[in-house]
Design goal:
The complex is a heterodimer of chains A (96) and B (494). Chain A is mostly helical and 96 residues long. Helices cover 34% and strands 4% of the residues of chain A. Chain A has a domain of 39 residues: Histone, subunit A, CATH 1.10.20. Chain A contains three helices and two strands; from the N terminus they run αααββ. Chain B is α/β, with parallel strands linked by helices and 494 residues long. An eleven-stranded mixed beta sheet of chain B has the order 1-3-2-4-6-5-10-11-9-7-8, sandwiched between helices. Chain B is globular. The chains are: A mainly alpha (96), B alpha/beta (494).
Chain lengths: 96, 494
């Protein structure tokens, strides 16, 4: 196995995914198959090869700093699942 | 009947006064009403807005002041593009009721060109899939055989063009998501060079790979659409500031003397022999038109898929972190605290394939695995890119199959890896950032479309379109229509 039940648990926590026990079991199996396939990358010797993060090289793109209107507050808040006045409302963050 | 016409044919009728945008839009809306209960391509139909926009276009033609070749042309868009005031789901429950407050740049440009939006189209959730079976809402059917998938992730976009439910469409292609469904549905699908078209307002999947492109009934229409949407954008610094040529002007120049490479690695064991035969015949046709073909090698092709399934999920896991139930989209009820709210919201809002890719991406980026997976995949990406550079030192473009097989049946590919293998011939093009187009290249004995893929140099879409146009002039595959209006539609199961 390339990925253990503990790994699945850990990664689900990092990814903020509340998976059921059945989902974790299936996820472990499927990820194992995919990672086994991906392992063929290790067979390639890439010594001295530069990584590619973007296919088309783009360096800093500069423009003049011209102020322009942003989205109005009402439109920005229109899709909020929960709000209080002009603020996004979220569950408690800091422990008592 | 206006719906079977191409966009450029429709535009010619508007200009000569024998048809109006309102007539075309009305006909399309009636067709959607009658046929989409079999095809299941539309997530949202914007009937009232479409009729209002069409009336405005009517007035412009009447006044002799049309905006250009796309004025009054009915289009439908993959539901990955933000449309101001029109629900945009990205095929996901987590965006079920999301109404964007702004338009994507490509939408702004289409509106400015006068195009009329008919609605938003089904797709695999967050563009992750090759069949639309990963849509959170329903599966779109292939108009050529309603028991088969249309391909994906832009399956709705390919299906509406094939079924004459829109004149033109836009999709996105991260690993083949325009070209593969175009191949499966017998239409043209083009992924432009990375950086050719702005990604602003496109719901992100893998930002170094995503690119917007047309799905069209023929090459002229694709050229019109690309010209309308391409070019630099202050809202997307990766949209490169290189001139956008007059793509239609390049058509009709023929391909006499053009050098076309045939990559050996794209004809592999296990591919559908009917696909191979059709592509070999297409190569012979290109030779007859004056092109000089020669074998080339892209030796790292076999590693492209593996590199992609590290890079794309890694980028996706980062991009999809924004779905946290705070600013928009779904929020799960009954959370103990903020972290619990995030985890419950994402578990409830994402489907299986999205969860799988977020998990895979998080894993390959996590401490201890980053160099072995992500770092190595980025180096392999360089090797894939160099393969193409070496080939393009000798040839002007490459010709290959779009997919190893034709449209498969719903439910046929349950194993994720089997589904991923569908994109083995399209993914390397995304890794290298090159333009690629799939055009109709034949049919199987059973009457299913076969896609022919052309791959070009970066920012040389003009040569691709020119070659595609020459092939289209010499063949009639692109004029075939699926047998939708007859009994097939009536037998369709939901």
């Amino acid at each position: 196995m390339k990925i253990s039940a503990r790994d699945v648990e850990h990664v689900a926590r990092l990814a903020r995914l509340d998976l059921s026990a059945a989902e974790k079991e299936r996820m472990g199996r499927e990820l194992d198959g995919i990672l086994t396939y991906i392992d063929k990358l290790r067979a390639l010797d890439t010594t001295g090869v530069e990584p590619t993060s973007h296919a088309v090289p783009v360096t800093n793109v500069m423009r003049d700093d011209v102020p322009s209107p942003s989205l109005p507050q009402a439109e920005t808040l229109a899709n909020a699942p929960d709000r209080q006045g002009d603020l996004f409302r979220v569950p408690k963050i800091i422990e008592d | 009947m206006l719906a079977p016409l191409t966009a450029h044919e429709l535009g010619a009728r508007y200009r000569s006064g024998v048809a109006t945008p309102t007539e075309a839009v009305t006909e399309y809306l009636a067709r959607i009403e009658g046929l989409d209960r079999h095809v299941h391509a539309f997530l949202t139909v914007t009937r009232d807005d479409a009729l209002r926009e069409a009336a405005l276009a009517d007035a412009r033609f009447k006044a002799g002041t049309p905006r250009g070749p796309l004025d009054g042309v009915p289009v439908a868009l993959k539901d990955v593009f933000c449309t101001r005031g029109v629900r945009t789901t990205c095929g996901s429950r987590i965006l079920d009721d999301f109404v964007p407050p702004y338009d994507a740049t490509v939408v702004t440009r289409l509106r400015a060109a006068g195009a009329v939006l008919l609605g938003k189209l089904n797709m695999d959730e967050f563009a992750m899939g090759s069949s639309t079976e990963h849509s959170a809402f329903f599966t779109t059917r292939n108009p050529w055989d309603l028991a088969r998938v249309p391909g994906g992730s832009s399956g709705g976009a390919a299906a509406v063009v094939a079924a004459d439910l829109a004149a033109l469409s836009l999709g996105t292609d991260t690993g083949g998501s325009i070209r593969q469904p175009a191949a499966f549905c017998g239409v043209l699908g083009m992924k432009p060079t990375y950086g050719r078209v702005s990604r602003y307002g496109l719901i992100a999947f893998a930002s170094s790979l995503d690119q917007v492109g047309p799905l069209a009934k023929d090459v002229e229409d694709a050229a019109l659409m690309l010209e309308a949407i391409a070019g630099a954008d202050p809202m997307d610094s990766t949209a490169v500031d290189v001139p956008v040529p007059d793509y239609r002007a390049a058509l009709g120049q023929g391909i006499e003397g053009m050098r076309i490479g045939v990559p050996a690695e794209y004809f592999m064991d296990g591919m559908d022999p009917e696909v191979e035969r059709a592509v070999r015949e297409a190569i012979a046709s290109l030779e007859k038109l004056g092109a000089r073909t020669e074998p080339v090698s892209l030796p790292h092709t076999g590693y492209g898929l593996a590199a992609y399934y590290v890079i794309a999920p890694a980028e996706a896991s980062s991009n999809l972190a924004r779905y946290d139930g705070v600013k928009y989209g779904l929020r799960a009820a009954g959370a103990r605290d903020l972290i619990d709210m995030y985890s419950k919201t994402r578990a409830a809002g994402f489907g299986n394939e999205v969860k799988r890719r977020v998990m895979l991406g998080t894993y390959v980026l996590s401490a201890g695995y980053h160099d072995a997976y992500y770092g190595q995949a980025q180096k392999v990406r360089t090797l894939v890119r160099r393969d193409f550079e070496q080939a393009f030192a000798r040839v002007d473009l490459l010709v290959a199959p779009t997919t190893p097989g034709v449209a498969f049946k719903l439910g046929e590919k349950e194993d994720p890896l089997q589904m991923y293998l569908n994109d083995i011939f399209t993914i390397p093009v995304n890794l290298a950032g090159l333009p690629g187009v799939s055009i109709p290249g034949g049919f199987t004995q059973a009457g299913l479309p076969i896609g022919l893929q052309l791959i070009g140099r970066a920012f040389d879409e003009a040569t691709l379109l020119r070659a595609a146009h020459a092939y289209q002039q010499a063949t009639a595959w692109h004029t075939r229509k699926p047998p939708l209006d007859g009994a097939t539609a009536e037998r369709a199961p939901r």
